[in-house]
Specification:
heterodimer, A: 362 residues, alpha/beta, nine-stranded mixed sheet, B: 506 residues, five-stranded parallel sheet, 22 helices, elongated
Chain lengths: 362, 506
């Protein structure tokens, strides 16, 4: 095995990053080897077996440069910095790339996950869970996917006063932002919390990465909240992984005709705990939920004229015609009410369908 | 002997006058030559004319005949010059008195039995001939008399024509088959159950000339709604009517009993349509496309996303200018194409529905929407979601307002807009919009928040104000200032097309 002199003295992290590139070695074997030997020794041993096409030294160097350029750090099983929650897991990632502060992982952690095809109500709920958990000092774990995942993190980051420190586990290299529109959220999470991936920089978000990513989410979580999920949605994989690890699973109930809630309602039928608000999650994590500061209703109460329209939107999503039909009002009146309600955040529209969002009006 | 007869040929939707010269001589071998850039169908006229003359007991000159189509230096096609050639031939052969054909122009195809048949484009050809008195086939009378101030003469056989020209018989009277040509009644809005928003959108589109996009799942009645839009539009004005008539005549379509197209037409080309079929063109003779057939009326594109992107992009220039300029190496033509564009599309591959019921992931939705070119989507002032009607509404049997009632409101609103601003609201230039569309304070505040929340772009802002102006015009006593209700409704008529909120409404 050739080794250039400069790499001989390279830090162990360089070799750890190189190990992450090797497809042919089973993760379990890599974990077992890394528990005994430092990455450089593991690399040398694998190289001596000559079973695999190993990346040559120049590649190793270049890849490490790529990590350094993107400010991506690396830790591995056996490293002092490797998160304890993962070290004791059944299937820990042998090498973990991260951006941000790994200490966040020693705090209290709850995962908030759900479908990408979320309803407006689901997104608002995820936002609420994210904000409330963050304000109680619980770090929100999620997958930075579209829909529920992103909303949970947006909630956690919504108020600088909470000092929310979100944890995101992604299915691509940390320099490959996916989906691209989450670029800002992605950097925000890295700045205030930590961004994790077991895939080396430059890795594309391949479909099979996401179930693997979900296992890390489950392994890190003390409690898992599923906000909305389709029947056989990807979040249910996270649930299976969580059950395997004895993590509390909570589900947010949804309307029985809401397809985006089929999966979560199914979980409730199967005996998952009910999550109505963040106090349920805190209770499941045995945290004193009394320290949850109740967020007052910041929205001004809707005008009397708009109440009928608001109530029509509460039961189920409706089109404007549906609302006009239900309330007996003219289209102009309904349009005005919807505009006023939408402005202060009582209802939200998606593709012409309106639904009430946030805590219901009491 | 030499004779010259006036006729015309068709290019695009315009006629160009020409003179048919026939020279008959004893010198040389018997022959029949057509010169002056005839195409294949012109050369075939020799055989038709010979048969027609013989069937009509007239003499075929067994001499050397040269026919010259003297006119524009371009290829002349079609069988519409048969009649003119036959008349010139007879005159050159001294079978007709030459003074009898002096101020006449002839258009028509000859059958082998001597009948005179209609050809496409009688109206534009007659119009092009100017101050000569046109002689046309019997069933071309309507369009011909619509296109000229001259007295139109009709013939149904060559024999009749020869008798009339020799003075042996009077010119035949035109026979109008009025019963057969009665236009079928337009579909009525009263047939539509529910669909309040879509009805409103139709009304606003008709009143303000706003292009309209229906977004909804299959089976929600998008086609049915679009078919009812022409009924809401006013009858065509004189100029547009004449332009439309020229187009329909040029493709040889049956014209209504008055000879003029006065009802706004509806064209609904299939999404497999080629670009040429839509915008017009072709190599031999520039034929008008569907957008010209929709002149003054409605062009309905169902399944907008299935049209080829090239075809859709070709619509942008005519949408802007109201005409389409088709150019080929040898010739070019300007065809009228001012139409109201109505299109329909599914929101996503699965058809959509209430939130949470869509089965498509964001990628699939994006790919689907990307098929609709952004610049074209921008032309739609109105984008309205259509859903399957509520079952109760569907079954209760009550239809909505009939077309006549809505059309009256539309006419009032259009009159108002034209009287106050001189143009339809969709055409208000962005530079003047602040002066002509005054907003109430709360309406202004609503739009301001939408802009601040990045849910509205500058262009969308202008479009919403134009539409709001139209909605205000439709009010019984139309206010000068556009209020919150008008703006709120205008915003509802501009549904978001994209993956997820919050996002920009273009």
């Amino acid at each position: 095995m050739r080794r250039s002199t400069e790499l001989q003295s390279a830090p162990e992290a360089v070799w750890a990053a190189a190990l992450a590139e090797m497809d042919g070695v089973p993760a379990s074997r890599l974990v077992a080897m890394l528990r005994l030997d430092p990455p450089s020794a593991v690399f040398a041993q694998l190289a001596s077996e000559r079973l695999l096409a190993l990346p040559d030294d120049r590649d190793v160097g270049e890849r490490w440069d790529r990590c350094v350029d993107s400010a991506i750090d690396v830790t591995w099983v056996g490293d002092d910095r490797y998160p304890t929650a993962l070290a004791n897991d059944v299937a820990p990632p042998p090498v973990l790339f991260f951006q941000g502060d790994l200490d966040v992982l020693s705090g209290r952690r709850a995962a908030v996950v759900g479908t990408r095809n979320a309803t407006a109500a689901g997104r608002a709920a995820a936002f609420g869970f994210g904000a409330d958990l963050a304000s109680s000092g619980v770090h929100v774990i999620s997958g930075l996917a579209r829909g529920i995942d992103a909303c949970a993190h947006r909630g956690a980051l919504s108020d600088a006063a909470f000092d929310g420190r979100p944890i995101a586990v992604v299915g691509s290299g940390l320099d490959v932002v996916y989906p691209r529109e989450h670029h800002n959220l992605w950097t925000q999470v890295a700045e205030s919390g930590v961004l994790l991936s077991e895939y080396p920089p430059g890795s594309e978000p391949l479909p099979y990465h996401f179930p693997m990513r979900n296992r890390i989410v489950a392994a890190l979580a003390e409690a898992l909240v599923v906000v909305e999920s389709r029947h056989r949605g990807g979040s249910l994989i996270t649930v299976d992984e969580a059950l395997l690890r004895g993590v509390h699973v909570l589900a947010v109930p949804g309307g029985i005709h809401n397809r985006s809630a089929d999966g979560t309602n199914g979980l409730l039928r199967d005996g998952a705990a009910v999550a109505i608000d963040a106090t349920d999650v805190l209770a499941a994590m045995a945290i004193d939920h009394r320290r949850l500061v109740p967020r007052g209703e910041p929205r001004p109460r809707p005008a009397a004229a708009d109440l009928a329209v608001y109530q029509a939107c509460c039961a189920a999503p409706h089109t404007m015609e549906g609302i006009a039909l239900q309330t007996g009002q003219s289209l102009v009146q309904v349009a005005m009410s919807l505009a006023r309600l939408d402005q202060v955040g009582w209802v939200a529209g998606t593709d012409g369908w309106y639904e009430a969002i946030g805590a219901p009006l009491r | 002997m030499l004779a010259a007869v006036r006729s015309a040929t068709l290019l695009g939707v315009q006629g160009s006058p020409l003179t048919v010269e026939v020279h008959v001589t004893h010198n040389g071998l018997p022959a029949f030559h057509v010169v002056g850039l005839p195409d294949e169908s012109c050369r075939e006229s020799r055989d038709r004319i010979r048969a027609a003359l013989l069937s009509s007991n007239l003499q075929w000159p067994n001499r050397r005949v040269t026919v010259n189509l003297a006119g524009p230096s371009q290829r002349k096609g079609g069988s519409g010059m048969d009649l003119a050639i036959a008349v010139a031939l007879l005159a050159a052969n001294n079978d007709l008195p030459s003074e009898s054909i002096a101020d006449l122009g002839f258009i028509g195809e000859l059958g082998l039995d001597g009948t005179v048949r209609r050809v496409p484009g009688v109206a534009p050809m007659v119009a092009a001939m100017g101050d000569v008195r046109p002689v046309v086939p019997m069933d071309g009378y309507l369009e011909a008399s619509a296109a000229t101030k001259q007295d139109v003469r009709v013939v149904s056989t060559l024999t009749e024509l020869v008798m009339a020209l020799r003075g042996d018989a009077p010119w035949p009277d035109p026979q109008i088959d009025s019963a057969a040509a009665d236009p079928p009644p337009l579909p009525d809005l009263a047939d539509v159950r529910g669909q309040a928003m879509a009805r409103l959108a139709l009304e606003v589109a008709a009143a303000g000339g706003h292009h309209l996009l229906f977004v909804g799942p299959p089976g929600s009645g998008k086609t049915m709604l679009a078919q009812r839009l022409p009924g809401l539009l006013p009858r065509l004005d004189t100029t547009t009517s004449l332009e439309a008539t020229m187009v329909y005549s040029a493709i040889g379509a049956t014209l209504p009993p008055t000879g003029l197209i006065v009802m706004p037409p509806l064209c609904a080309p299939h999404h497999s349509s080629s670009m040429v079929s839509l915008v017009g063109g072709g190599t031999a003779n520039l034929r008008p496309g569907q957008i010209s057939l929709a002149h003054g009326g409605v062009l309905f594109l169902d399944e907008l996303g299935e049209f080829s992107p090239r075809v859709l992009d070709a619509l942008r220039q005519p949408l802007e200018e109201g005409v389409i300029r088709v150019a080929r190496a040898r010739q070019h033509a300007t065809l009228p194409a001012r139409f109201l564009l109505v299109a329909a599309t599914n929101p996503c591959p699965c058809g959509g529905g209430p939130p949470g019921s869509c089965e498509c992931d964001d990628g699939a939705r994006l790919r689907y929407l990307r098929r609709l070119s952004g610049p074209l989507l921008d032309r739609f002032d109105l984008r309205v979601g259509v859903d399957r009607p509520d079952v109760d509404e569907f079954l209760d049997g009550r239809g909505g307002e009939p077309t006549a009632v809505v059309a009256r409101r539309v006419a009032t609103a259009r009159r108002r807009a034209l009287a106050q601003r001189g143009l339809l609201n969709s055409a208000i230039p962005a530079a003047h919009i602040d002066e002509v569309v005054l907003l109430s304070d709360d309406a202004q505040r609503l739009l301001r928040t939408e802009l601040e929340r990045d849910r509205l772009t500058g262009r969308g802002y202008h479009r919403i104000r134009r539409v709001a102006r139209t909605i205000a015009d439709l009010d019984d006593d139309s206010p000068d200032i556009v209020g919150l209700g008008h703006v709120a409704l205008a915003m509802q008529l501009r549904v978001h097309l994209g993956v997820s909120r919050p996002a920009r409404v273009a």
